[in-house]
Amino acid sequence: MSQPAASDHSMGDLLLALKAAPALLRRFGGFTVSLLLSTAVNLLAIPFVISTLGKDVWGELALAQATAALFGIVVAYGWGTVGAAMVASLPVAERPQMYADSLVSRGYLFMFAAPVMFGLVLTISRIDPAAAAVASVAYVLPFLGASWYFVGQAQPWKLLLFDVFPQSGGIVVGVVLTSFMQNAYVFVLSLLVFNAVAVVAGALGALKSRGGEAVRTNFAFIPAMKRLRDQRHGVVAAGTGSLNSNSPLLVVNLVVPSALPQYAMADKLFRFAVAGFGPVLQVIQGWIPEAGVVASRGRIRTVARLAPVAGAGAGSLLAALTPWASSLFSNGSIVVGPELSMPFGLILAGVIVAQIVGLACLIPLGKGAALARSTAIGAIVNIPLMFLLGTTLGAPGIAWAVGLAELVVATYQLLVVRQSLRELSKELQP
User: Fold this and answer.
1) What domain count does the chain have?
2) Shortest CA distance to 41 belongs to which of 191, 243, 150?
3) DSSP string, 102-119
4) 39, 98, 138, 342: most buried, per Cβ within 10 A?
5) In-domain check, residue 405
6) CA geometry: angle at 361 spanning 355 and 362, to 5°?
C-alpha cells in the first residue's frame, strides 16, 4: 500500500511543478531584465572611465568601492544576505512593517559607519581626497536600499523600477558629464545623487502597505539597536563573506600595488559573472520556501545537488573568457592573463555554490548559524593565506588564496545541508 501512495505523492509534486513553471519563468525573466540593464551599463562604463580618467584612477575607484562594500555589510547588517528568504517566509501583510523596521536600524548604522569609512578611504586612496570621500559614500548607499526586499517579494519589476533604473542612471549621467569635465569627482557625485534617489524610491515602493495594515515607523534608538540581535547570523555571514571577496583588493594595494588595475579588472568581471547568476539565485530563494516546510525539503535536496555543476560550469567559462573580456573593455590597456583568470574561475565556482546552498538552502532549514560559521571558517583560511601566497606569488597568489577559501566555505555548507536533510528524514520515519 505504501508504494502507490508514494507514487501519487510524486505525481502531485510533478503537476504542481508544471503549474508553477510559467510563473517561475516570468519571475526569472523579470529579474533577468534588471540584470541585463545593470550589467550592460556597468560594462560599457568601464572603457569610458578608463579612457577619460585613466586606468590608475579607475583602479583607485574600484578600491574605494571594495572598501565601501566592507562597510556596507555593517549598514545592511544581514538583511541584504538573509532578508529575501525572511521576506518570502512572512505573511504578505507583515512584510512592509518588517522593511520599515530594518530601514530605521540600517539608517542609524549608516550614520555610524559613514564617518569611519570616509576617513579610511581618504587614507588609502591616491586620487583626489574629495572624490575618494564622495565615492565611498556613493558606493555604500545601495546597502540602505530595498533590492533584497523586492527579491523576497518576487517583484522583479519593482526591483527594476525603484532600484536598478536610478543606479544605472547615475552611471550613465556620470559618464556623460565626465566626457565634458574630466574629473573623478564629477563621476562619483553623479553616483551619489542617483544612488540616494534609489534608496528613497525603494523605500516608497517597499513601504506601500498591504492588507489594510498601516506601517508604523519607530525611530527610537534602543528598539532599533535591539532588532540587530535577530540579524547576528546574517551579519556574521555577510561580513566574513564580504571580507573574503573585498579584502583582496586591499591586500593587492598593500603587497603588489602595481598589479591593482589588472586585479581590479579581473575582480570586476568576476562580479559581473556573480551578478549574471543573480536572477537564478533570486528565483530559487523565493521558490524553495513558498512550497511549505515539508515540500521545501525536496526542493532543497535538488538544488544542493545541482549547485556544484552550476558552479563548475560558470567558473570554467569565466576563466576562459576573462583574458579576452579584459582587453575588450579596457581598449587594450588592461590585459588579464590566465595566471589571474584561472584562480578567479575557482573563486566564481565556490561563490556560486556557497550562494545557492548558503542563502537558498541553509536559511529555510533554520541553519543561519551554520551559514555564519561557514563564512567565518573561510575568512580564517583566506586572510593569512592571502598574505602568504601574495608575498610569494604576487596577485595570482592572492586570487588562489581566495579561491581555496571559497571552496572550503562551499564544501562545509554542502555537508551541513546533507546532514540536516538526513536528520529530518529520520524524524519523519515512523
Assistant:
1) 1
2) 191
3) HHHHHHHHHHHHHHHHHH
4) 138
5) yes
6) 90
Nearest Cα neighbor of 203 from 337, 340, 106 is 106
- Residue 115 domain-assigned? yes
Torsion, Cα 363 369 375 378, to 10 degrees, reads -130
Q: Residue 417: which domain range?
A: 18-428
Position 366 confidence tier, pLDDT thresholds 50, 70, 90:
confident
Alpha carbons 309 and 54: distance in angstroms, whole number: 39
CA 349 to chain centre: 15
Identify the band that residue 345 occupies on the pLDDT scale cut at 50, 70 and 90.
very high
Report DSSP letters for 329-366, one per residue. Answer: HTTTS----HHHHHHHHHHHHHHHHHIIIIIIIITTTT
The Cα 234–Cα 224 span in angstroms is 16
Residue of 332, 154, 362, 343 lying closest to 266 (CA atoms)? 343
Is-above-0.70 flag for pTM?
no
- Confirm whether 78 is domain-assigned: yes
Which cell is 141 given? 548607499
Q: Which residue has the higher pLDDT, 111 or 18?
A: 111
How does pLDDT run across 187-239, given as a tens digit for each residue? Answer: 999 999 999 999 999 999 888 755 546 788 888 888 888 887 777 666 676 66
The residue behind cell 505523492 is 9
Give 25-62 pLDDT, tens digit per residue.
Answer: 666 677 778 878 888 888 888 888 888 888 888 888 88
As given in the structure block, the three cell numbers for residue 188 are 562619483
Helix or strand holding residue 395 (H, E): helix 395-428
Name the DSSP class of 90. S
For the chain, what's the residue count? 430
Alpha-carbon span 236 to 244, nearest angstrom: 12
Q: Angle, to 10 degrees, between the axis of helix 184-206 and the axis of helix 2-53? A: 150
Name the amino acid, one letter, at 392. T
- Distances 167 to 34, 117, 164, 191, 288 between C-alpha atoms, Å: 11, 21, 5, 7, 29
Q: What residue type is 8 in one-letter code?
A: D
Give the Cα separation of 94 and 152 in Å (integer).
Answer: 13
As a whole number of angstroms, the distance between CA 389 and CA 394 comes to 7
255 within domain boundaries: yes
Cβ atoms of residues 218 and 165 within 8 Å: no
Grid coordinates given for 12: 502531485
- Cα 33 to chain centroid distance, Å, stands at 17
